[in-house]
């Protein structure tokens, strides 16, 4: 018996307002966020469009298929991983979608998977962060509130996975996790068997990305040898699979948004359950059922620096962390955790979490090639505009947090904040920008060793470091220390500048008390 595990990612982000300017932010207080950061009109328009083309018709098809299979004595079962921010939008703009999901869950043929509430990258924040667990807890509470359901199997944001994620998931008492069937990790082994992490009894279910992408990406591709893909053809492919199970996992938007209804994608979904169940050795199963039944065939080990995902051809963290813009934003979010929690402001914490939605960094991807084409499809503005908009919002959020905290701690938060690109420190040499910028004291410390000696000498001679720290960051103490630096060589100069900045950063960090 080969078990077919059909699973869908159900997520829509809250997109940022890319038209928001610094002048409007300067006049906005805590009561204006997080709404000020978001494009309400665009978010509502996209959600309603996808609801009409995908969510509502696809849900109806699945509900009917569950009933039809039951009438023949067979079971059609599916799995959904629904983000918290998707549910918020559905509740506001299309509550009938929630009613449909509740009906599906009530049949007992639908399993809900766990994920982070904000569909974030919090699992990558490191051992000093509590945010990953907090967002998982929020998602668990949402599943209980909306559906009376407690998930048992975990699906991390975009299938991000490494050994540390596995350890955290097991510590939170989940019995299984879904990951991408990355060939470099499987090492020639089949994705159609269960595995475990090192020294753990957590069951790993690997996505069969080839069969999943035959639907998700290639269904409408007329040059693909498998075109046209019909339900009976696909069922025949599944019937020939060797293994304990086959995990078919894709974005739910596949059915009507990524492939429009005119492509025949709804008809494919409508006929698929019936065609699969024609084979007596095939059955539809939930992820939990497979976790319970499958015996692990070996160990999958993924180091923290080798994190995998299901995104792009690289199947790594590159979709969100492959360029300086993305890394600047990621680090700013990660460093804000202790600070924003110290504010004890629900609005500020909520704004910080909305900025964590993985799509925000996804839209800043800047590479060309096949991956770039996919990112361009999902994006709604160019990468630089997204970067500007994001940093404006983050910088404003940090400034509001500093005001609420107040005192020396608030001043430290203000000095350690990021600034938008138009106020960043941009390195030059011979009158030309050398492609290196710093948006905070942290980045100034990180980028100085990367700049050329001539660039450092130029900026030091013109007192650019001192002036930027004094006028843009506002830290007169560090500015005065930089002004007093004297050195006998460029190496000594770099060493002394870095020492002054590092010492000041540690002083400021010490002023910010944990929440």
Identify low-pLDDT runs.
none
Helix content range: 40-55%
| Rg for CA atoms | 25 Å
**Estimated share of beta-strand residues:** 5-15%
**Number of DSSP strands?**
10
The helix tally amounts to 23
The total tally of domains equals 2
CATH architecture of the largest domain: Alpha-Beta Barrel
The N- and C-terminal alpha carbons lie at a distance of 53 Å
Polypeptide structure, described:
By secondary structure, the chain is an alpha/beta fold. It has 23 helices and ten strands. The strands form three sheets. Strands 1, 2, 3, 7 and 8 form a five-stranded parallel β-sheet that branches.
Q: Can you lay out the helices and strands and say which pair or pack?
A:
Blueprint: E1 2-10, H1 22-26, H2 40-71, E2 78-82, H3 84-93, H4 95-106, E3 110-112, H5 131-147, E4 153-154, H6 163-171, E5 176-180, H7 183-186, E6 203-207, H8 209-216, H9 231-239, E7 245-251, H10 265-276, E8 282-284, H11 287-293, H12 318-321, H13 324-343, H14 346-355, H15 358-362, H16 369-378, H17 383-405, H18 407-415, E9 425-429, E10 432-438, H19 441-447, H20 453-461, H21 464-473, H22 476-483, H23 490-511
Parallel strand pairs: 1-2, 1-7, 1-8, 2-3, 4-5, 5-6
Antiparallel strand pairs: 9-10
Helix pairs in contact: 2-4, 2-10, 3-4, 9-10, 13-14, 13-17, 14-17, 17-18, 19-23, 21-22, 22-23
